[in-house]
Predict the structure.
Amino acid sequence: MNGPGSSAPLVRLEGVTKVFNGSGHSTTAVRDVSLEARRGEMVLLMGPSGSGKTTLLTLIAGLARPTSGRVSLFGRGIERFSTRELQAFRAERIGFIFQAFLLIEALTAAENVGIVLRFGRTRRSERAARAGALLGELGVGHLADRFPAGLSQGEKQRVAVARALANGAELLIADEPTGSLETRQAVGIIALLHEQARKRGAAVIVASHDLRLRDFADRIVTLRDGAIA
Amino acid sequence: MDMYAVRTLRSQPLRLALTVGGIALCIVLMLFLLAVYRGVADGSVEYIRQNRADLWVLQDNATNILRGSSLIRPEQILAISRAPGVRTAAPVLFLLSTIRRGDRVGTIFLTGFDPGAGLGGPPALAWGRGPRADDEIVLDRSFAMKFGFKAGEEVDLQGRRLKLVGISRGTNAFVIQYAFVTLRFARDLIGVPGLATCVMVNAEPGAEIGPIREEICDVLAGLQAYDQATFLANNVHEMRSGFLPLLYTVAAIGSVVLTAILSLLLSVNILERRKDFAILKTLGAPSGFLWGLVVKQAALIASVSCAAALALFFPLVRLIERVSPEVTAKSTPGQVAGVAAAVLLMSLASSLAAVRRLRRIYVLEAFS
Protein backbone atom coordinates (compact mmCIF):
# COMPACT_ATOMS: atom_id res chain seq x y z
CA MET A 1 0.00 0.00 0.00
CA ASN A 2 1.26 3.43 -0.90
CA GLY A 3 0.34 6.79 0.56
CA PRO A 4 -1.09 9.50 -1.62
CA GLY A 5 1.34 10.98 -4.11
CA SER A 6 4.14 8.67 -3.07
CA SER A 7 4.82 7.19 -6.50
CA ALA A 8 4.96 7.96 -10.20
CA PRO A 9 1.62 9.17 -11.57
CA LEU A 10 -0.82 6.49 -12.70
CA VAL A 11 -2.50 9.01 -14.95
CA ARG A 12 -0.83 11.91 -16.70
CA LEU A 13 -2.48 14.30 -19.12
CA GLU A 14 -0.28 16.75 -20.98
CA GLY A 15 -1.92 19.56 -22.96
CA VAL A 16 -4.94 17.41 -23.83
CA THR A 17 -7.57 18.84 -26.13
CA LYS A 18 -10.68 17.05 -27.40
CA VAL A 19 -12.69 18.43 -30.26
CA PHE A 20 -15.96 16.88 -31.46
CA ASN A 21 -16.70 17.54 -35.09
CA GLY A 22 -20.37 17.72 -36.00
CA SER A 23 -22.05 18.51 -39.28
CA GLY A 24 -20.65 21.90 -40.21
CA HIS A 25 -19.37 22.82 -36.77
CA SER A 26 -16.97 21.61 -34.13
CA THR A 27 -17.07 21.76 -30.33
CA THR A 28 -14.04 21.85 -28.10
CA ALA A 29 -15.06 19.83 -25.05
CA VAL A 30 -11.63 19.77 -23.36
CA ARG A 31 -9.02 22.43 -23.95
CA ASP A 32 -5.30 22.09 -23.16
CA VAL A 33 -5.73 20.21 -19.88
CA SER A 34 -2.76 18.85 -17.97
CA LEU A 35 -3.12 16.91 -14.74
CA GLU A 36 -1.81 13.91 -12.83
CA ALA A 37 -3.21 11.36 -10.40
CA ARG A 38 -1.11 9.13 -8.17
CA ARG A 39 -1.76 6.00 -6.12
CA GLY A 40 -3.94 6.58 -3.07
CA GLU A 41 -4.87 10.01 -4.28
CA MET A 42 -8.40 11.28 -4.87
CA VAL A 43 -8.69 13.93 -7.55
CA LEU A 44 -11.98 15.77 -7.79
CA LEU A 45 -12.93 17.25 -11.14
CA MET A 46 -15.41 20.02 -10.49
CA GLY A 47 -17.29 22.37 -12.67
CA PRO A 48 -20.79 23.13 -13.90
CA SER A 49 -22.70 20.95 -16.35
CA GLY A 50 -21.11 21.06 -19.81
CA SER A 51 -17.71 22.07 -18.47
CA GLY A 52 -16.06 18.96 -19.91
CA LYS A 53 -15.79 16.79 -16.77
CA THR A 54 -17.27 13.63 -18.29
CA THR A 55 -15.31 14.02 -21.51
CA LEU A 56 -12.14 14.35 -19.48
CA LEU A 57 -13.04 11.16 -17.59
CA THR A 58 -13.49 9.25 -20.83
CA LEU A 59 -10.11 10.49 -22.03
CA ILE A 60 -8.48 9.41 -18.77
CA ALA A 61 -10.06 5.97 -19.03
CA GLY A 62 -8.94 5.52 -22.62
CA LEU A 63 -12.57 5.40 -23.82
CA ALA A 64 -11.84 8.26 -26.18
CA ARG A 65 -8.63 9.48 -27.76
CA PRO A 66 -7.50 13.12 -27.53
CA THR A 67 -7.51 15.36 -30.58
CA SER A 68 -4.16 16.70 -29.42
CA GLY A 69 -1.94 16.33 -26.38
CA ARG A 70 -0.96 13.14 -24.63
CA VAL A 71 -2.70 10.80 -22.17
CA SER A 72 -0.53 8.30 -20.31
CA LEU A 73 -1.90 5.47 -18.20
CA PHE A 74 0.43 3.60 -15.90
CA GLY A 75 3.39 5.23 -17.59
CA ARG A 76 2.39 4.38 -21.14
CA GLY A 77 0.83 6.66 -23.75
CA ILE A 78 -2.60 5.47 -24.80
CA GLU A 79 -1.76 6.15 -28.43
CA ARG A 80 0.33 2.99 -28.16
CA PHE A 81 -2.63 0.89 -27.08
CA SER A 82 -4.77 -0.93 -29.61
CA THR A 83 -8.53 -0.93 -29.06
CA ARG A 84 -8.30 -4.50 -27.80
CA GLU A 85 -5.50 -3.60 -25.38
CA LEU A 86 -7.50 -0.69 -24.02
CA GLN A 87 -10.46 -2.99 -23.51
CA ALA A 88 -8.27 -5.45 -21.61
CA PHE A 89 -6.76 -2.60 -19.68
CA ARG A 90 -10.18 -1.40 -18.53
CA ALA A 91 -11.18 -4.93 -17.61
CA GLU A 92 -8.09 -5.56 -15.51
CA ARG A 93 -6.89 -2.25 -14.08
CA ILE A 94 -9.68 0.34 -14.11
CA GLY A 95 -12.88 0.41 -12.06
CA PHE A 96 -15.93 2.51 -12.97
CA ILE A 97 -18.75 3.98 -10.95
CA PHE A 98 -21.46 5.59 -13.02
CA GLN A 99 -24.05 8.21 -12.30
CA ALA A 100 -26.99 6.43 -10.61
CA PHE A 101 -24.61 3.42 -10.36
CA LEU A 102 -25.99 1.71 -13.48
CA LEU A 103 -26.08 -1.80 -12.15
CA ILE A 104 -27.33 -4.31 -14.70
CA GLU A 105 -30.92 -4.99 -13.73
CA ALA A 106 -30.99 -8.56 -15.07
CA LEU A 107 -28.09 -9.62 -12.85
CA THR A 108 -27.96 -10.17 -9.11
CA ALA A 109 -25.65 -8.11 -6.93
CA ALA A 110 -23.07 -10.92 -6.95
CA GLU A 111 -23.35 -11.35 -10.70
CA ASN A 112 -22.91 -7.60 -11.23
CA VAL A 113 -19.64 -7.83 -9.35
CA GLY A 114 -18.63 -11.16 -10.88
CA ILE A 115 -19.04 -9.95 -14.45
CA VAL A 116 -16.00 -7.70 -14.13
CA LEU A 117 -13.97 -10.65 -12.87
CA ARG A 118 -15.02 -12.59 -15.94
CA PHE A 119 -13.71 -9.85 -18.21
CA GLY A 120 -10.51 -9.90 -16.17
CA ARG A 121 -10.14 -13.62 -16.95
CA THR A 122 -10.62 -14.78 -13.38
CA ARG A 123 -11.40 -18.47 -13.24
CA ARG A 124 -15.08 -19.33 -12.99
CA SER A 125 -14.56 -21.16 -9.69
CA GLU A 126 -13.03 -18.05 -8.07
CA ARG A 127 -15.50 -15.47 -9.32
CA ALA A 128 -18.42 -16.18 -7.01
CA ALA A 129 -16.17 -16.45 -3.96
CA ARG A 130 -14.39 -13.17 -4.71
CA ALA A 131 -17.60 -11.33 -5.50
CA GLY A 132 -19.17 -12.64 -2.30
CA ALA A 133 -16.12 -11.69 -0.22
CA LEU A 134 -16.06 -8.18 -1.67
CA LEU A 135 -19.75 -7.63 -1.09
CA GLY A 136 -19.26 -8.90 2.48
CA GLU A 137 -16.37 -6.49 2.99
CA LEU A 138 -18.62 -3.62 1.94
CA GLY A 139 -21.43 -4.77 4.24
CA VAL A 140 -23.84 -6.09 1.62
CA GLY A 141 -22.83 -9.75 1.52
CA HIS A 142 -26.32 -10.81 2.60
CA LEU A 143 -27.75 -9.14 -0.54
CA ALA A 144 -25.61 -11.07 -3.00
CA ASP A 145 -28.60 -12.84 -4.59
CA ARG A 146 -30.82 -9.77 -4.83
CA PHE A 147 -31.49 -7.98 -8.08
CA PRO A 148 -30.84 -4.22 -8.23
CA ALA A 149 -34.58 -3.51 -8.25
CA GLY A 150 -34.72 -4.94 -4.74
CA LEU A 151 -31.88 -2.82 -3.34
CA SER A 152 -32.01 0.59 -1.68
CA GLN A 153 -29.93 3.46 -3.06
CA GLY A 154 -27.36 2.95 -0.32
CA GLU A 155 -27.13 -0.76 -1.07
CA LYS A 156 -26.81 -0.10 -4.78
CA GLN A 157 -23.92 2.28 -4.20
CA ARG A 158 -22.07 -0.34 -2.21
CA VAL A 159 -22.60 -2.95 -4.90
CA ALA A 160 -21.40 -0.41 -7.49
CA VAL A 161 -18.26 0.21 -5.45
CA ALA A 162 -17.75 -3.54 -5.11
CA ARG A 163 -18.02 -3.88 -8.90
CA ALA A 164 -15.49 -1.09 -9.40
CA LEU A 165 -13.05 -2.75 -7.00
CA ALA A 166 -13.62 -6.33 -8.14
CA ASN A 167 -10.80 -6.50 -10.67
CA GLY A 168 -8.29 -5.11 -8.19
CA ALA A 169 -8.48 -1.78 -10.01
CA GLU A 170 -5.54 0.58 -9.58
CA LEU A 171 -7.53 3.46 -11.05
CA LEU A 172 -11.13 4.20 -10.05
CA ILE A 173 -13.18 6.52 -12.17
CA ALA A 174 -16.49 7.88 -10.89
CA ASP A 175 -18.89 10.03 -12.89
CA GLU A 176 -21.28 12.08 -10.75
CA PRO A 177 -21.58 9.27 -8.20
CA THR A 178 -23.62 11.38 -5.80
CA GLY A 179 -25.92 13.04 -8.31
CA SER A 180 -29.19 11.67 -7.05
CA LEU A 181 -28.27 10.97 -3.43
CA GLU A 182 -29.13 12.57 -0.13
CA THR A 183 -26.23 14.09 1.76
CA ARG A 184 -25.77 11.12 4.07
CA GLN A 185 -25.61 8.69 1.14
CA ALA A 186 -23.45 11.02 -0.96
CA VAL A 187 -20.91 11.42 1.80
CA GLY A 188 -21.16 7.70 2.46
CA ILE A 189 -20.12 6.63 -1.00
CA ILE A 190 -17.28 9.10 -1.31
CA ALA A 191 -15.99 8.12 2.11
CA LEU A 192 -16.19 4.51 1.05
CA LEU A 193 -14.33 5.18 -2.17
CA HIS A 194 -11.71 7.23 -0.40
CA GLU A 195 -11.20 4.55 2.20
CA GLN A 196 -10.97 1.72 -0.32
CA ALA A 197 -8.62 3.69 -2.56
CA ARG A 198 -6.27 4.37 0.31
CA LYS A 199 -6.45 0.78 1.48
CA ARG A 200 -5.69 -0.60 -1.96
CA GLY A 201 -3.31 2.06 -3.17
CA ALA A 202 -5.56 3.04 -6.06
CA ALA A 203 -6.01 6.47 -7.60
CA VAL A 204 -9.55 7.84 -7.68
CA ILE A 205 -10.77 10.45 -10.12
CA VAL A 206 -14.25 11.75 -9.46
CA ALA A 207 -16.18 14.07 -11.75
CA SER A 208 -18.87 15.99 -9.89
CA HIS A 209 -20.37 19.38 -9.31
CA ASP A 210 -21.30 18.35 -5.76
CA LEU A 211 -19.58 20.68 -3.30
CA ARG A 212 -20.14 18.18 -0.47
CA LEU A 213 -17.25 16.12 -1.84
CA ARG A 214 -14.58 18.79 -1.48
CA ASP A 215 -13.52 17.64 1.99
CA PHE A 216 -12.53 14.21 0.74
CA ALA A 217 -10.42 15.30 -2.22
CA ASP A 218 -6.65 15.36 -2.11
CA ARG A 219 -6.72 17.64 -5.09
CA ILE A 220 -9.47 19.62 -6.77
CA VAL A 221 -9.36 20.51 -10.45
CA THR A 222 -12.01 22.96 -11.54
CA LEU A 223 -13.03 23.04 -15.16
CA ARG A 224 -14.81 25.82 -17.02
CA ASP A 225 -15.61 25.62 -20.72
CA GLY A 226 -13.29 22.66 -21.07
CA ALA A 227 -10.23 24.30 -19.58
CA ILE A 228 -8.78 24.26 -16.09
CA ALA A 229 -9.99 27.37 -14.35
CA MET B 1 -23.63 -14.02 -17.35
CA ASP B 2 -25.35 -16.76 -19.26
CA MET B 3 -28.25 -15.95 -16.98
CA TYR B 4 -28.29 -12.47 -18.49
CA ALA B 5 -29.24 -14.00 -21.83
CA VAL B 6 -32.02 -16.05 -20.24
CA ARG B 7 -33.39 -13.34 -17.94
CA THR B 8 -33.52 -10.60 -20.53
CA LEU B 9 -35.49 -12.89 -22.82
CA ARG B 10 -37.83 -13.91 -20.01
CA SER B 11 -38.43 -10.30 -19.05
CA GLN B 12 -40.73 -9.94 -22.07
CA PRO B 13 -42.76 -13.18 -21.89
CA LEU B 14 -45.38 -12.27 -24.49
CA ARG B 15 -42.79 -11.22 -27.04
CA LEU B 16 -40.77 -14.36 -26.32
CA ALA B 17 -43.85 -16.56 -26.68
CA LEU B 18 -44.83 -14.95 -29.98
CA THR B 19 -41.29 -15.32 -31.32
CA VAL B 20 -40.99 -18.93 -30.23
CA GLY B 21 -44.45 -19.62 -31.66
CA GLY B 22 -43.59 -18.05 -35.02
CA ILE B 23 -40.30 -19.87 -35.29
CA ALA B 24 -41.85 -23.15 -34.15
CA LEU B 25 -44.47 -22.87 -36.91
CA CYS B 26 -41.71 -22.31 -39.47
CA ILE B 27 -39.96 -25.42 -38.17
CA VAL B 28 -43.22 -27.40 -38.28
CA LEU B 29 -43.65 -26.28 -41.88
CA MET B 30 -40.17 -27.52 -42.80
CA LEU B 31 -40.62 -30.80 -40.94
CA PHE B 32 -44.00 -31.33 -42.55
CA LEU B 33 -42.69 -30.71 -46.05
CA LEU B 34 -39.84 -33.12 -45.50
CA ALA B 35 -42.21 -35.72 -44.08
CA VAL B 36 -44.60 -35.34 -47.01
CA TYR B 37 -41.65 -35.58 -49.38
CA ARG B 38 -40.57 -38.82 -47.72
CA GLY B 39 -44.13 -40.11 -47.89
CA VAL B 40 -44.42 -39.20 -51.56
CA ALA B 41 -40.97 -40.62 -52.32
CA ASP B 42 -41.92 -43.94 -50.77
CA GLY B 43 -45.45 -44.01 -52.19
CA SER B 44 -44.32 -43.15 -55.71
CA VAL B 45 -41.68 -45.80 -56.14
CA GLU B 46 -42.55 -48.45 -53.58
CA TYR B 47 -44.39 -50.31 -56.35
CA ILE B 48 -41.18 -50.53 -58.36
CA ARG B 49 -39.04 -51.27 -55.33
CA GLN B 50 -41.19 -54.21 -54.25
CA ASN B 51 -41.88 -55.67 -57.69
CA ARG B 52 -38.36 -56.86 -58.27
CA ALA B 53 -37.86 -57.58 -61.94
CA ASP B 54 -34.51 -58.21 -63.62
CA LEU B 55 -35.57 -55.90 -66.45
CA TRP B 56 -38.33 -53.33 -66.96
CA VAL B 57 -39.14 -53.05 -70.66
CA LEU B 58 -40.88 -49.92 -71.98
CA GLN B 59 -41.45 -48.28 -75.31
CA ASP B 60 -38.34 -46.52 -76.57
CA ASN B 61 -37.74 -43.08 -74.99
CA ALA B 62 -40.01 -43.84 -72.03
CA THR B 63 -37.86 -43.86 -68.90
CA ASN B 64 -40.40 -44.15 -66.08
CA ILE B 65 -44.00 -44.95 -65.27
CA LEU B 66 -44.82 -41.82 -63.30
CA ARG B 67 -44.72 -39.19 -65.99
CA GLY B 68 -44.37 -40.78 -69.39
CA SER B 69 -46.36 -42.82 -71.85
CA SER B 70 -45.39 -46.20 -73.19
CA LEU B 71 -47.33 -48.63 -75.33
CA ILE B 72 -46.10 -52.10 -76.14
CA ARG B 73 -47.88 -54.12 -78.81
CA PRO B 74 -48.94 -57.76 -78.31
CA GLU B 75 -46.36 -59.12 -80.80
CA GLN B 76 -43.60 -57.26 -78.97
CA ILE B 77 -44.74 -58.77 -75.65
CA LEU B 78 -44.65 -62.21 -77.27
CA ALA B 79 -41.18 -61.60 -78.68
CA ILE B 80 -39.89 -60.45 -75.29
CA SER B 81 -41.22 -63.60 -73.66
CA ARG B 82 -39.43 -65.70 -76.30
CA ALA B 83 -36.09 -63.91 -76.07
CA PRO B 84 -33.19 -66.23 -75.05
CA GLY B 85 -32.69 -66.37 -71.28
CA VAL B 86 -36.15 -64.97 -70.38
CA ARG B 87 -38.00 -67.06 -67.82
CA THR B 88 -41.08 -64.86 -67.30
CA ALA B 89 -42.38 -61.75 -69.01
CA ALA B 90 -45.22 -60.09 -67.12
CA PRO B 91 -47.05 -57.32 -68.99
CA VAL B 92 -48.58 -54.50 -66.94
CA LEU B 93 -50.98 -51.85 -68.16
CA PHE B 94 -51.15 -48.48 -66.36
CA LEU B 95 -54.17 -46.25 -66.95
CA LEU B 96 -55.54 -43.08 -65.44
CA SER B 97 -59.09 -43.90 -64.45
CA THR B 98 -61.89 -42.59 -62.26
CA ILE B 99 -63.87 -44.05 -59.41
CA ARG B 100 -67.25 -42.63 -58.45
CA ARG B 101 -68.86 -42.82 -55.02
CA GLY B 102 -72.08 -40.91 -54.80
CA ASP B 103 -71.38 -37.43 -56.11
CA ARG B 104 -67.67 -37.71 -55.58
CA VAL B 105 -65.23 -38.72 -58.29
CA GLY B 106 -61.59 -39.63 -57.68
CA THR B 107 -58.77 -40.25 -60.14
CA ILE B 108 -56.65 -43.33 -59.70
CA PHE B 109 -53.55 -44.81 -61.27
CA LEU B 110 -55.11 -48.09 -62.38
CA THR B 111 -52.65 -50.95 -62.62
CA GLY B 112 -53.69 -53.99 -64.60
CA PHE B 113 -51.50 -57.02 -63.98
CA ASP B 114 -51.61 -60.76 -64.48
CA PRO B 115 -52.23 -62.34 -61.04
CA GLY B 116 -50.74 -65.62 -62.30
CA ALA B 117 -47.41 -64.05 -63.25
CA GLY B 118 -46.42 -63.16 -59.70
CA LEU B 119 -45.28 -59.66 -60.70
CA GLY B 120 -46.95 -56.26 -61.02
CA GLY B 121 -49.37 -56.49 -58.10
CA PRO B 122 -49.67 -54.37 -54.93
CA PRO B 123 -46.32 -53.97 -53.13
CA ALA B 124 -47.97 -54.56 -49.73
CA LEU B 125 -51.46 -55.20 -48.43
CA ALA B 126 -52.92 -53.54 -45.36
CA TRP B 127 -55.91 -55.80 -45.57
CA GLY B 128 -57.37 -58.56 -47.80
CA ARG B 129 -55.77 -60.06 -50.89
CA GLY B 130 -54.86 -59.16 -54.44
CA PRO B 131 -57.40 -59.31 -57.28
CA ARG B 132 -57.82 -62.79 -58.79
CA ALA B 133 -60.93 -62.31 -60.90
CA ASP B 134 -61.80 -59.60 -63.42
CA ASP B 135 -64.50 -58.14 -61.15
CA GLU B 136 -62.17 -57.53 -58.21
CA ILE B 137 -60.15 -54.49 -57.25
CA VAL B 138 -57.58 -53.44 -54.66
CA LEU B 139 -57.54 -49.78 -53.62
CA ASP B 140 -54.80 -47.72 -52.00
CA ARG B 141 -55.47 -47.26 -48.29
CA SER B 142 -55.48 -43.44 -48.43
CA PHE B 143 -57.89 -43.45 -51.37
CA ALA B 144 -60.18 -45.96 -49.66
CA MET B 145 -60.17 -43.89 -46.45
CA LYS B 146 -60.81 -40.66 -48.30
CA PHE B 147 -63.82 -42.10 -50.09
CA GLY B 148 -64.94 -44.26 -47.18
CA PHE B 149 -64.70 -47.64 -48.96
CA LYS B 150 -65.00 -50.70 -46.74
CA ALA B 151 -64.15 -54.37 -47.24
CA GLY B 152 -66.41 -56.21 -49.67
CA GLU B 153 -68.08 -53.06 -50.95
CA GLU B 154 -68.74 -52.44 -54.61
CA VAL B 155 -66.58 -49.92 -56.40
CA ASP B 156 -67.89 -48.00 -59.42
CA LEU B 157 -64.97 -47.70 -61.86
CA GLN B 158 -66.01 -45.91 -65.03
CA GLY B 159 -69.46 -47.49 -64.71
CA ARG B 160 -68.12 -51.02 -64.06
CA ARG B 161 -68.93 -52.65 -60.74
CA LEU B 162 -65.94 -54.22 -58.97
CA LYS B 163 -65.69 -55.87 -55.57
CA LEU B 164 -63.16 -54.42 -53.13
CA VAL B 165 -61.03 -57.39 -52.04
CA GLY B 166 -57.97 -55.64 -50.63
CA ILE B 167 -56.39 -52.42 -49.41
CA SER B 168 -52.78 -51.71 -50.41
CA ARG B 169 -50.01 -49.81 -48.65
CA GLY B 170 -47.06 -47.89 -50.14
CA THR B 171 -49.22 -46.91 -53.12
CA ASN B 172 -49.99 -43.28 -52.32
CA ALA B 173 -48.12 -40.93 -54.63
CA PHE B 174 -49.79 -37.87 -52.99
CA VAL B 175 -51.27 -36.41 -56.17
CA ILE B 176 -52.63 -39.80 -57.20
CA GLN B 177 -53.08 -43.25 -55.70
CA TYR B 178 -52.67 -46.72 -57.20
CA ALA B 179 -55.49 -49.22 -57.67
CA PHE B 180 -55.03 -52.80 -58.89
CA VAL B 181 -57.17 -54.91 -61.23
CA THR B 182 -56.50 -57.83 -63.53
CA LEU B 183 -54.72 -57.14 -66.79
CA ARG B 184 -57.65 -58.53 -68.72
CA PHE B 185 -60.07 -56.09 -67.06
CA ALA B 186 -57.73 -53.12 -67.72
CA ARG B 187 -57.38 -54.06 -71.40
CA ASP B 188 -61.11 -54.50 -71.71
CA LEU B 189 -61.62 -51.08 -70.15
CA ILE B 190 -59.71 -49.31 -72.93
CA GLY B 191 -60.98 -51.70 -75.60
CA VAL B 192 -57.56 -52.52 -77.03
CA PRO B 193 -56.66 -56.17 -76.46
CA GLY B 194 -53.09 -57.29 -75.84
CA LEU B 195 -51.66 -53.84 -75.09
CA ALA B 196 -49.25 -53.16 -72.16
CA THR B 197 -47.41 -50.17 -70.72
CA CYS B 198 -44.41 -52.14 -69.64
CA VAL B 199 -43.21 -55.69 -69.31
CA MET B 200 -41.43 -57.01 -66.23
CA VAL B 201 -38.86 -59.58 -67.20
CA ASN B 202 -37.19 -62.17 -65.01
CA ALA B 203 -34.29 -64.17 -66.37
CA GLU B 204 -33.66 -67.88 -66.21
CA PRO B 205 -31.57 -68.85 -63.18
CA GLY B 206 -27.90 -68.24 -64.01
CA ALA B 207 -28.66 -66.31 -67.20
CA GLU B 208 -26.79 -63.01 -67.67
CA ILE B 209 -28.96 -59.90 -67.86
CA GLY B 210 -26.74 -58.01 -70.35
CA PRO B 211 -27.35 -60.23 -73.39
CA ILE B 212 -31.10 -60.36 -72.67
CA ARG B 213 -31.19 -56.57 -72.50
CA GLU B 214 -29.23 -56.30 -75.74
CA GLU B 215 -31.56 -58.75 -77.43
CA ILE B 216 -34.64 -56.76 -76.36
CA CYS B 217 -33.22 -53.34 -77.20
CA ASP B 218 -31.34 -54.16 -80.39
CA VAL B 219 -33.33 -56.92 -82.02
CA LEU B 220 -36.82 -55.83 -81.01
CA ALA B 221 -37.10 -52.36 -82.47
CA GLY B 222 -38.69 -49.57 -80.48
CA LEU B 223 -38.14 -50.94 -76.99
CA GLN B 224 -35.91 -49.98 -74.10
CA ALA B 225 -35.00 -52.20 -71.13
CA TYR B 226 -33.76 -51.03 -67.74
CA ASP B 227 -32.36 -53.02 -64.88
CA GLN B 228 -34.10 -52.66 -61.51
CA ALA B 229 -31.69 -50.09 -60.06
CA THR B 230 -31.71 -47.87 -63.15
CA PHE B 231 -35.46 -47.98 -63.49
CA LEU B 232 -35.93 -47.17 -59.80
CA ALA B 233 -33.49 -44.26 -60.13
CA ASN B 234 -35.36 -42.99 -63.21
CA ASN B 235 -38.63 -42.91 -61.30
CA VAL B 236 -37.11 -41.36 -58.21
CA HIS B 237 -35.59 -38.65 -60.40
CA GLU B 238 -38.97 -38.04 -62.01
CA MET B 239 -40.70 -37.82 -58.66
CA ARG B 240 -38.05 -35.42 -57.33
CA SER B 241 -38.17 -33.16 -60.35
CA GLY B 242 -41.86 -32.66 -59.73
CA PHE B 243 -41.72 -32.20 -55.98
CA LEU B 244 -38.36 -30.80 -54.94
CA PRO B 245 -38.73 -27.33 -56.50
CA LEU B 246 -41.88 -26.82 -54.43
CA LEU B 247 -40.17 -28.21 -51.33
CA TYR B 248 -37.12 -25.99 -51.77
CA THR B 249 -39.20 -22.90 -52.44
CA VAL B 250 -41.42 -23.28 -49.38
CA ALA B 251 -38.48 -24.33 -47.21
CA ALA B 252 -36.52 -21.27 -48.36
CA ILE B 253 -39.46 -18.97 -47.55
CA GLY B 254 -39.80 -20.63 -44.14
CA SER B 255 -36.07 -20.19 -43.49
CA VAL B 256 -36.13 -16.52 -44.43
CA VAL B 257 -39.17 -15.87 -42.23
CA LEU B 258 -37.55 -17.73 -39.34
CA THR B 259 -34.29 -15.85 -39.69
CA ALA B 260 -36.11 -12.52 -39.98
CA ILE B 261 -38.27 -13.11 -36.90
CA LEU B 262 -35.30 -14.12 -34.81
CA SER B 263 -33.11 -11.33 -36.08
CA LEU B 264 -35.84 -8.80 -35.32
CA LEU B 265 -36.24 -10.05 -31.76
CA LEU B 266 -32.51 -10.01 -31.11
CA SER B 267 -32.16 -6.51 -32.59
CA VAL B 268 -35.03 -5.16 -30.48
CA ASN B 269 -33.52 -6.80 -27.44
CA ILE B 270 -30.15 -5.17 -28.10
CA LEU B 271 -31.70 -1.76 -28.65
CA GLU B 272 -33.80 -2.01 -25.50
CA ARG B 273 -30.74 -3.02 -23.50
CA ARG B 274 -28.29 -0.68 -25.15
CA LYS B 275 -27.42 0.93 -21.81
CA ASP B 276 -26.44 -2.51 -20.47
CA PHE B 277 -24.27 -3.12 -23.51
CA ALA B 278 -22.68 0.33 -23.16
CA ILE B 279 -21.90 -0.42 -19.51
CA LEU B 280 -20.45 -3.81 -20.38
CA LYS B 281 -18.28 -2.25 -23.11
CA THR B 282 -17.04 0.39 -20.66
CA LEU B 283 -16.25 -2.23 -18.05
CA GLY B 284 -14.00 -3.93 -20.59
CA ALA B 285 -16.20 -6.65 -22.07
CA PRO B 286 -14.44 -8.16 -25.08
CA SER B 287 -16.38 -7.98 -28.35
CA GLY B 288 -16.56 -11.76 -28.41
CA PHE B 289 -18.33 -11.74 -25.06
CA LEU B 290 -21.04 -9.38 -26.29
CA TRP B 291 -21.46 -11.32 -29.52
CA GLY B 292 -21.60 -14.48 -27.47
CA LEU B 293 -24.53 -13.09 -25.49
CA VAL B 294 -26.51 -12.50 -28.66
CA VAL B 295 -25.56 -15.88 -30.13
CA LYS B 296 -26.58 -17.60 -26.90
CA GLN B 297 -29.94 -15.86 -26.96
CA ALA B 298 -30.43 -16.94 -30.57
CA ALA B 299 -29.44 -20.53 -29.81
CA LEU B 300 -31.70 -20.55 -26.77
CA ILE B 301 -34.72 -19.34 -28.73
CA ALA B 302 -33.93 -21.79 -31.53
CA SER B 303 -33.71 -24.70 -29.09
CA VAL B 304 -36.95 -23.83 -27.31
CA SER B 305 -38.64 -23.33 -30.69
CA CYS B 306 -37.40 -26.73 -31.91
CA ALA B 307 -38.79 -28.39 -28.80
CA ALA B 308 -42.11 -26.59 -29.23
CA ALA B 309 -42.19 -27.52 -32.92
CA LEU B 310 -41.62 -31.20 -32.16
CA ALA B 311 -44.33 -31.18 -29.51
CA LEU B 312 -46.70 -29.68 -32.08
CA PHE B 313 -45.57 -31.57 -35.17
CA PHE B 314 -46.50 -35.18 -34.48
CA PRO B 315 -50.07 -34.55 -33.23
CA LEU B 316 -50.56 -32.14 -36.15
CA VAL B 317 -49.43 -34.76 -38.68
CA ARG B 318 -51.84 -37.31 -37.20
CA LEU B 319 -54.63 -34.75 -37.46
CA ILE B 320 -53.80 -33.86 -41.07
CA GLU B 321 -53.60 -37.52 -42.07
CA ARG B 322 -57.00 -38.07 -40.52
CA VAL B 323 -58.56 -35.09 -42.27
CA SER B 324 -56.75 -35.64 -45.59
CA PRO B 325 -55.85 -39.33 -45.91
CA GLU B 326 -54.03 -38.77 -49.21
CA VAL B 327 -51.37 -36.89 -47.24
CA THR B 328 -48.87 -39.48 -46.10
CA ALA B 329 -46.12 -37.98 -44.00
CA LYS B 330 -43.13 -40.00 -42.90
CA SER B 331 -40.58 -38.56 -40.48
CA THR B 332 -37.18 -39.99 -39.69
CA PRO B 333 -34.77 -39.09 -36.88
CA GLY B 334 -32.38 -37.93 -39.61
CA GLN B 335 -34.92 -35.42 -40.92
CA VAL B 336 -35.57 -34.04 -37.44
CA ALA B 337 -31.84 -33.80 -36.73
CA GLY B 338 -31.25 -32.14 -40.09
CA VAL B 339 -33.95 -29.52 -39.52
CA ALA B 340 -32.68 -28.87 -35.98
CA ALA B 341 -29.16 -28.34 -37.34
CA ALA B 342 -30.49 -26.04 -40.07
CA VAL B 343 -32.45 -24.03 -37.49
CA LEU B 344 -29.34 -23.65 -35.35
CA LEU B 345 -27.46 -22.39 -38.41
CA MET B 346 -30.28 -19.96 -39.15
CA SER B 347 -30.18 -18.75 -35.55
CA LEU B 348 -26.47 -18.13 -35.97
CA ALA B 349 -27.16 -16.14 -39.14
CA SER B 350 -29.84 -14.14 -37.29
CA SER B 351 -27.49 -13.36 -34.45
CA LEU B 352 -24.79 -12.23 -36.88
CA ALA B 353 -27.30 -9.86 -38.47
CA ALA B 354 -28.33 -8.54 -35.04
CA VAL B 355 -24.76 -8.27 -33.76
CA ARG B 356 -24.14 -5.40 -36.19
CA ARG B 357 -26.27 -3.26 -33.87
CA LEU B 358 -23.68 -3.70 -31.14
CA ARG B 359 -21.17 -1.70 -33.17
CA ARG B 360 -23.47 1.31 -33.00
CA ILE B 361 -23.59 1.27 -29.20
CA TYR B 362 -20.90 3.56 -27.84
CA VAL B 363 -19.18 3.39 -24.48
CA LEU B 364 -19.95 7.05 -23.90
CA GLU B 365 -23.63 6.12 -23.61
CA ALA B 366 -22.82 4.76 -20.15
CA PHE B 367 -21.90 8.28 -19.11
CA SER B 368 -24.95 10.04 -20.46
